[in-house]
Design goal:
BLUF domain-containing protein; binds flavin mononucleotide; alpha+beta; BLUF_domain; 4 helices; 28% strand; Acylphosphatase-like_dom_sf; Alpha-Beta Plaits
């Protein structure tokens, strides 16, 4: 079985396109090595990221990400064993809000509001639906 983890986080400062490129370069190197795949969305100091792969590798990756000073707080919104990867082709895909449909964009924005809620969001079916809506709709991602 594969492990899939989705979190939202806020960046401590606005992130430039160059910084995003550097994050993606490091991510792709490490994730290739660890057979981790996923997707990163960034907009307006908010990150939405999907990590999937072996449970230990995903956890180690997320531990590194949480220690990264470019983040403020991180909040896990989805964490399950899954049968198949959603993004088998990307060691770390990247999407901008304009790559998403209106529905997914508003789902991603709703998820980002969870950052300020201390409660564990993982058990909430509304949140699960929002995550699925974002996951099921990706177009034009590099
Ligand atoms: C938004 C964001 C997403 C990141 N995603 C990943 C990732 O998917 N994989 C990864 O290895 N590092 C990722 N990083 C970088 C890690 O936080 C960390 O800097 C890096 O893994 C350290 O790698 P090193 O120990 O090999 O230098 C991300 C950082 C940020 C800010």
């Amino acid at each position: 079985m594969l492990h899939q983890l989705v979190y939202v986080s806020s960046s401590t400062e606005p992130i430039s396109p160059d910084e995003i490129s550097r994050i993606l370069e490091t991510s792709r190197q490490n994730n290739d090595r660890d057979d981790v795949t996923g997707l990163l969305l960034y907009h307006d100091q908010l990150f939405f990221q999907v990590l999937e792969g072996d449970q230990v590798c995903v956890q180690e990756c997320f531990d590194r990400i949480k220690r990264d000073r470019r983040h403020g707080s991180t909040s896990v919104v989805w964490e399950y064993q899954v049968e198949r990867r959603a993004f088998p082709q990307w060691s770390m895909g990247y999407a901008k809000p304009e790559d998403l449909s209106e529905e997914s964009r508003s789902a991603a924005i709703s998820l980002s509001k969870l950052l300020h809620k201390p409660a564990d969001a993982r058990e909430d079916p509304v949140i699960a639906n929002l995550v699925q809506s974002v996951l099921s709709d990706f177009r034009g991602i590099t």
